[in-house]
Amino acid sequence: MKVLANDGISKAGEQALKNAGIEILDNRVAQDHVINFINENNVDVLLVRSATKVRQELIDACPGLKIIGRGGIGMDNIDVEYAIEKGLYVINTPTASSKSVAELVFGHFFSLARFLHESNRLMPLEGETHFDAMKKSFSKAYELSGKTLGVIGFGSIGQEVVKMGISLGMKVIVLTRKPKTKVLSLEFFDGQTVNFEITSTNDMDAFLKEADFISINTPKTNEYIIDTPQFEKMKDGVYIVNTARGGVMNEVALIDFIESGKVAGAALDVFEKEPNPEVLLLMNPALSLSPHVGGNTVDAQEKIGVELAEQIIKIKETIQ
């Protein structure tokens, strides 16, 4: 069995595959050449992240392909149903990067609440000449403890965001299409575990009026979850972080509500026009920005690689 990890795989995942007698091709093939490469090299497994697209054309043109794997949660760059109809196995790693994404959410929340995104820009330029002025302008900061964290989405990432919010002493509310209840376990360094039963709401208006900090953790959507009507119903001075997908929040409307003061600050790890975000977003001092790196930690990549390898090895045993 041959595996093309076109968007990369961790050393641990690569080693697990090699130990199982599976060949890894370490090539990085441009999208336009993927089909030819797969066919010319008799590739059985195509592993991707978000860069490589696996559409119907590729699936039809590569009859020898047996498995398509996505390192991560979202599968919007793969025509999953069509692949399954054609008899291919489609695998992903829905929980491996959840903690990494959730930590980035709070990295942005802390940056926004303490003006770190701005002070890191300005200190090298004006720290020597305007130190006292900056100290004064960045003094109206907030603690997260005691504030209300609103989480949109209750999948594996949303659950990790909720758990981190609880650990910081935040009040937590969750918004989903249909109310659901989950028991979340917080595990501590000394072996203690504390369980919290969380029930989500589908009342968006009440959710928006109550939340001080909002984290968007949903799959890709066909329309905005957060648009002008939703911004209007939020608390004055709300903070928002989007690590989900570009297109779940109206970025143009976001800028308008930042300028009006309704939104105190926002963070974007994903963008509607990725990988070419709007310059107005990139230059706005009220935004904390990162280049779609939510799951890009050494820890998450190790877990992703190992999980993909384990699934491939199991499928190999089934089909042989």
Notable characteristics:
single chain, 320 residues, alpha/beta, Rossmann fold, 2 domains, six-stranded parallel sheet, five-stranded parallel sheet, 13 helices, 13 strands, 38% helix, 19% strand
Walk me through what this model shows.
This is D-3-phosphoglycerate dehydrogenase. InterPro entries: D-iso_2-hydroxyacid_DH_PdxB, D-isomer_2_OHA_DH_cat_dom, D-isomer_DH_CS, D-isomer_DH_NAD-bd, NAD(P)-bd_dom_sf. Belongs to the D-isomer specific 2-hydroxyacid dehydrogenase family. It holds the Pfam family 2-Hacid_dh_C. One of its GO terms (molecular function) is oxidoreductase activity, acting on the CH-OH group of donors, NAD or NADP as acceptor. The protein is of the alpha/beta class and 320 residues long. The chain folds into 2 domains: 2-92 and 298-319, Rossmann fold; 97-289, Rossmann fold (3-Layer(aba) Sandwich), CATH 3.40.50. 38% of the residues lie in helices and 19% in strands. It is built from 13 helices and 13 strands. It has helices at 11-19, 34-40, 56-61, 80-85, 98-113, 116-126, 131-137, 156-167, 204-210, 228-233, 251-260, 279-282, 298-319; strands at 2-5, 23-25, 45-48, 67-70, 89-92, 148-152, 171-175, 181-187, 193-199, 213-216, 238-242, 263-268, 287-289. The strands form 3 sheets. A 6-stranded parallel beta sheet has the order 7-6-10-11-12-13, sandwiched between helices. α1 runs parallel beside α13 (298-319) and α5 packs across α8 (156-167). The termini are close together. The model has no long low-confidence stretch (mean pLDDT 96).
